[in-house]
Amino acid sequence: MAIRPIVRYGEPVLHAPSAPVQRIDPEIRSLLTDMVETMYAAPGIGLAAPQVGVPLRLIVIDLSVGEDKTQLIQLVNPEILERDGEQRHEEGCLSIPGFGGSPTRPARVRVRGLDPEGQERVYEATDLLARAFCHEIDHVEGLVFVDRLSPLKRDLMKRKLRKRAREGWEE
Ligand SMILES: [Zn+2]
């Protein structure tokens, strides 16, 4: 197990769609384990593979941040099957430290993917879990929450983020 460096806004891997995983082999399982470790260390409630520089469709989520092992979700090739309603809450992102925004998200989603053993998993999620699924699945599509803000807020934040990316991110 290893904690991997988290890439920051502006790195191309965060802004392009990731590739589907063709086969869940030991390398993929070890990457998932590293992602969980990295998420807990940050600490955060979700992480996607492009955030550790790997352009593959893998996400991990744990709303308890390791306090309750039953809440850990590790999904390969996640996809949103259904979405209903709307909710808006402040979100942050481990790849965009120091920034927050409130994108419109579905109130409820149904998500499908494969677990590390290759078994199909379907989740029904509302509230924070629905937002976390949408946020992490956006990452494997090459989107960050900033891309989901209103045009005015998005442009303002992107200007600040470009400046930050030029000058370097402080911890
Ligand atoms: Zn994020």
Which key features would you list for this structure?
single chain, 171 residues, alpha+beta, 5-stranded antiparallel β-sheet, two-stranded antiparallel sheet
Précis, in short:
It is built from three helices and seven strands; from the N terminus they run H-E-E-E-E-E-E-E-H-H. The chain has helices at 26-41, 127-140, 151-167; strands at 46-48, 58-61, 73-84, 87-88, 104-105, 108-114, 120-126. It binds zinc ion.
Bound molecules: zinc ion
**SSE string:** HEEEEEEEHH
Q: How many H/I helical runs?
A: 3
- The average pLDDT score comes to 96
How much helix, percentage-wise, in residues? 25-40%
- Summarize the main sheet: 5 strands, antiparallel
Strand order of the largest sheet: 1-2-3-6-7
For the termini, the CA-CA separation is: 23 Å
Structural class: alpha+beta
Estimate the global geometry from the Cα principal axes: globular
Round the Cα radius of gyration to an integer and report it.
15 Å
Strand content: 15-25%
Low-confidence stretches: none
Record field, number of beta strands: 7
List the helices and strands and how they pair.
Elements: H1 26-41, E1 46-48, E2 58-61, E3 73-84, E4 87-88, E5 104-105, E6 108-114, E7 120-126, H2 127-140, H3 151-167
Antiparallel strand pairs: 1-2, 2-3, 3-6, 4-5, 6-7
Bound molecules: zinc ion.
Textual characterization of the structure:
The protein is of the alpha+beta class and 171 residues long. It is built from three helices and seven strands; from the N terminus they run H-E-E-E-E-E-E-E-H-H. Strands 1-2-3-6-7 form a five-stranded antiparallel beta sheet, with helices on both faces. Strand 6 (108-114) and strand 7 (120-126) form a beta hairpin. The longest helix has 17 residues, at 151-167. It binds zinc ion (ZN). The site of zinc ion has 5 residues, from helix 2.
